[in-house]
Amino acid sequence: MANLVMTEDETMLADAARGFLDKSAPVKAFRDLRDAGKTHDAKMWKEMADMGWAGVLVPESAGGSDMGHAAAGVLAHEMGKTLVVSPFLSTAVIAATALRNVSDARAEKALAAIATGDVTYALAVDETSKFNPEATSMVATREGNGFRLSGKKTFVVDGALADRLLVLAKTDDGLTLFDIPADRAGITRNAQNMIDARDSARIDFDNVEATGEDVLGQVDSAMSVLKPAIEAGQAALAAEMAGLSAGAFGMTVAYLKERKQFGTVIGNFQALQHRAAHLWCEIEVTASAIVNAGRLLDEDPDNAIMAVSLAKARATSTAQLAVQEGVQMHGGIGMTDAYDIGFYMKRARVGAEWLGDYGYHANQVAKHRGF
Amino acid sequence: MQSNQELEGFRVELRDWLEANCPAEMRGGEASESSICWGGKNFEFASDAQRDWMERAASKGYTVPTWPVEYGGAGLNRAQEKIFKEEMDRIGARSPLDSFGIWMLGPALLHFGSHEQKLHYLPPIARGEIRWCQGYSEPGAGSDLASVQTKGEDKGDHWLVNGQKIWTSYADKADWIFALIRTDREAPKHKGISFLLINMEDAGVETRPIKLISGASVFCETFFTDVKVPKHQIVGTENRGWDVAKYLLTHEREMISGGGQGLSGGRALGAVLNESLGEGQEMETTLRADAMRCEVDALATGLTLERYKDQAEAGTGAGDASAMLKYMGTELNKQRHELLMAAGGSDALEWDGPLGNRPADWLRTKANSIEGGTSEVMLSIVSRRVLGLGA
Ligand SMILES: Cc1cc2nc3c(=O)[nH]c(=O)nc-3n(C[C@H](O)[C@H](O)[C@H](O)COP(=O)(O)OP(=O)(O)OC[C@H]3O[C@@H](n4cnc5c(N)ncnc54)[C@H](O)[C@@H]3O)c2cc1C
After folding, report:
1. What residues make up the domain containing A77?
2. Which residues of B touch A10 (CB under 8 A)?
3. Do residues B382 and B263 share a domain?
């Protein structure tokens, strides 16, 4: 069993990330972005790339920092605490992992472009309101040496602004993953007005041309490339949600120590103490599942699926508890837009759905435990 | 630090040893209060296999794998301990010996005891020869444990102990008791308690079993009438017994949280539930959903126990982690047994019926969130010491 303590390097990375984010990306930065109607901060993404974050999973030979999945989780966790908006999960984690599982010169070039922060990606998998890649119905019809893609994708996170799309479609004998520029003829992107004020799109593909070059990995076997990418994304998203929980919890406990009613701070009421203590316990337990998933993805990626699902399931339920308790213990002010706790609630709901909800992941765990 | 090669060597050796020495009857099966090997002079082994397993394990120090060899352990480090657990889980081996000596007194003695005390008291615990019970609670001192009133008068070379303990698990079966005794009645309540070791065969010690809702009588009232306790039978300093008591409680809480048996004895809840369904019967949807949630939580809680051990090894341990583990682990164990009862349906409603101990075990788990400090007390500890609320 992996060692579940953070390494010295990871602690240093977390501290460095926190230092940077507290300065450049406090919750206020997210609020400003939202108020400006924006879902991407190109300048900040460039800074993150310069620190090696965009290349966290890119090999050094392609210019990456190659720090691994546990480290990606550390970064996602810190970003989650202050609701940092960036293409980190879609690009640096999911796309980079997919490309890394393809060993050709084209993938190497794509990875290099991710590491520099020059190219961003979005994963276009969902077609219905629930995550279920196996049930993909979008088709890629063979035409000469290439394909024609037609169909609809929804909840494409970072999809309105991404430079490139990873698109999952049905081919003759299975599923195939395509890596295509988002502005290719026949693609229509409709930005969704999301509750978490982040980038997501509905995307229509109308007879979109794709060549054999655009196929990531082998035709009809998308999963050998996509499965590790999705698992990496799920683990990092779980880490982000654990960070989000910690952020919401920190705000809440601070408020318990400050707000006075009945002549005393509300943190003196045992009813609230026990709710806060319970939440802390849940957060601690989830933290273990998060580290474990990162470790397994680094050390034994072929057998990480249960650990990843355990992390995502726990992170989902904990984040939902954290934000609900957070709002409740703030009273009326927690319901106002001017106060930040509501942002956490909305992001938690989106995170809960993305890449598989609680039921999806708990079910994966159960299957691996034989029921 | 050992090389991976050395660790793998240890694994291979251990695996072979387990294969040769862990009797088939001591593998698999759902852990139950009634299947525990407690050891002690009065213990009746359930089978030869149970006795063999305990004795063979003790001969290698595997009843207390992490204790130093000179005190009866195997001296395993953290990396070896993980391998030990993995290999035990792999064959579903039951714990060869579980006792309050191992889980509570042992760690306290290792921390606070003198070298002579360790040499005297620890090896018989490791070999399963002496069984200990815990004399903490009194009729007036439950959650407010520091208000214990059983008193010890200083008589020069001994204390004269008088008073009553209650809820003393297995006091009627135990050979010795570790007890919280008020040795200074003037001092503030936390500052006048001593941690004494008392022989249950001494004149003036009496026990009276109390029947539980599960039908068993695992706990007792324990009476002390003019019991003479020699001065060397104190652990730690006179009147500073509260420090020992608290330290011991952290280990007790870890045990109750599931550290002893593993939350599910290493077995998946679903697998156990499936077994209780009839031929061709499918698990009902809400039961499966509840079981999934319970399994997710149990796996993550199990990982947390491991993470805390890793942290302790790295010297970065969280002080009051045991309160958290105790709270989460016991609440989960209660849920688990609710699900086992639901899966059993009417078969689970008979004492010693088709599902054996299931109803008694279910009822027993209700004490998990009471004994060793209630869930509410655990939450209060977390809120005060970790969150700094209501300080
Ligand atoms: C099966 C079993 C085995 C046991 N074995 C042993 C043993 O071997 N040795 C031993 O010494 N003891 C043993 N105990 C005793 C156990 O430690 C006590 O029962 C426990 O500490 C609670 O004390 P109490 O029963 O007096 O309950 P009380 O303290 O009276 O508690 C009653 C209720 O009030 C709540 N409460 C109390 N104080 C507070 C507070 N400040 N804030 C909020 N809620 C509060 C409690 O959580 C509980 O819900 C055992 C108990 C059981 C059930």
Report:
1. 8-119
2. none
3. yes
For ligand 1, say whether the CB of B370 is within 6 Å of any of its atoms.
Answer: yes
Percent of chain A having pLDDT more than 90?
98
Q: Is A234 within the bounds of a domain?
A: yes
The string of pLDDT tens digits covering residues B52-75 is: 999 999 999 999 999 999 999 999
| A313–B324 C-beta distance less than 8 A | no
Whether residues A235 and A203 share a domain: the answer is no
- Averaged pLDDT, B338-367: 91
Cβ neighbors of A11 (< 8 A, separation 6 or more) are none
Coil, helix or strand at residue A241: helix
Q: Is the pLDDT of residue B391 over 90?
A: no
**Going by CA atoms, what residue is nearest to atom 25 of ligand 1?**
B142
Q: Are A252 and A327 in contact (CB under 8 A)?
A: no
pLDDT value at B225 more than 50: yes
Residues 6+ apart with CB under 8 A from B268: A369, A370, A371, B295
* Res B74: pLDDT: 97
The conformation of residue A92, written as its DSSP 8-state character, comes to I
CATH assignment of the domain containing B157: 2.40.110.10
User: Phi/psi class of residue B66: alpha, beta or left (left: φ > 0; alpha: ψ in -120 to 50)?
Assistant: alpha
Asked whether residue B229 carries a pLDDT value surpassing 50, the answer given is: yes
User: Which residue's CA lies nearest to atom 38 of ligand 1?
Assistant: B143
Q: At what angle do helices A69-81 and A270-299 cross, to 10 degrees?
A: 150
Chosen domain end from A119, A134, A159:
A119
CATH number of the domain within which A131 lies: 2.40.110.10
Q: How confident is the model at residue B30 (pLDDT cuts 50, 70, 90)?
A: low
Residue from the list B295, B297, B378 with its beta carbon closest to the beta carbon of A369: B295
Set of chain B residues whose Cβ sits within 8 Å of the Cβ of A286: 300
Nearest chain B residue to A311 by CA distance is: B300
Domain range for B80 is 4-98
A129 & A114 share domain: no
Element (H, E) at A97: helix A96-100
Label residue B31 by pLDDT band (50, 70, 90).
low
Residue A118 has pLDDT above 60, yes or no: yes
